[in-house]
Amino acid sequence: MRQLNSNAAQLIALCGGKVPYYTRVLSKDAEFPAFDELAEFIRSGHPDYKLTVEEGTEEEWESLLLSSNDEVEVAVLERNPVSDGSVGQDEVAEFIEETAECKPETGVAWLHEFLSEVKTVYAFQHLQGSETEDGGNALHALRSHLWERGDAILQADNEGFTNEEGFHIVWQFSDSVSGPWNMGVLQDGTWHHFKMDLGDPDHREAFLNGDMPGDLSAIRQSEPSR
């Protein structure tokens, strides 16, 4: 189990002993946005929601609470710098370890190289309010805002990782998963992006082998920025 702070321990108790669901933004940038910037972003785009400092100060915030104006908690956002002995370093090391046997191999190799340069992990603990449409939209907007600052990828528990363009590149889904999903495979230094059916066995086999399914067309192609 990943190292959890006191907030996470409290959440486990509140969730009946279940580990909370996380999504993350993994950034190469050690600089982080000011609390005032993030608070104004939520206030202007999602006026029924707000951000408050949970740990740290407004200048050096460590965790923030996203909640509705009537105090329904949506998510806790933790900022974990990656440095020697830090929680962020432990997270990155665990991601590398847990994806070592994942597929496709080309996606994993690119991911591990990217992770070696990550400077900040933004971890979102999803709370009850994230299950509502408006709460989920506010959380998604905040996560996207951090990701769109650049040099960053996305991660979701029990799903996997994206590349810098937001296409899924490493498979960590359950075998029973189904439905359309934006995917990417790296071939000869070029990303091939497409939408596939996660439950289609032929689509799945092709992706795991690092290929684009033969009956699909690429949404777009691009070279990795790194």
**Rg result:** 18 Å
Indicate the structural class: alpha+beta
Poorly predicted runs are 1-16
Strand arrangement across the biggest beta sheet = 2-3-4-5-1-6-7-8
Main sheet, how many strands, which sense, barrel? Answer: 8 strands, antiparallel
Strand tally is 11
User: How much helicity do the residues have?
Assistant: 25-40%
| DSSP strand content | 25-35%
Describe this structure in words.
The protein is of the alpha+beta class and 226 residues long. 29% of the residues lie in helices and 31% in strands. The protein has 6 helices and 11 strands. It has an 8-stranded antiparallel β-sheet with strand order 2-3-4-5-1-6-7-8, with helices on both faces. A 3-stranded antiparallel β-sheet has the order 9-10-11. Strand 6 and strand 7 form a beta hairpin. The longest helix is centred in the middle third of the chain and has 15 residues, at 133-147. The chain is globular and about 50 Å long. Mean pLDDT is 92; it is low at 1-16.
Summarize the model shown:
With 226 residues, the chain is an alpha+beta fold.
Architecture blueprint of SSEs:
Elements: H1 6-14, E1 22-27, H2 35-45, E2 49-56, E3 61-68, E4 73-81, H3 87-98, H4 105-115, E5 120-126, H5 133-147, E6 152-156, E7 160-162, E8 168-171, E9 180-187, E10 190-197, H6 201-208, E11 220-222
Antiparallel strand pairs: 1-5, 1-6, 2-3, 3-4, 4-5, 6-7, 7-8, 9-10, 10-11
